[in-house]
Amino acid sequence: MFAERRAEYRKYEKEFLRTLSSIDDPRRDRECFRDFCSIFFYELASLTAPEDRAATLRKNVAAILEQYKNKEEAANNYKRLYDIVAQAVQNVGDFLGPLSTDLGVLDSRNGQFFSPYSLCLLMAQLVGASRITEIQQSGFTTVADPTAGSGATLIAAAEVLRINGLEPMTSIIAHAADVSSICYHMCFIQLTLAGVPALVEHMDSLSLKRFDAAWTPMAHIFWMKHGHLFPPEEEVGKPPPLKALPIGTQLSLFQNKSTDRAQST
Question: pTM for this one?
Answer without folding.
Answer: 0.88
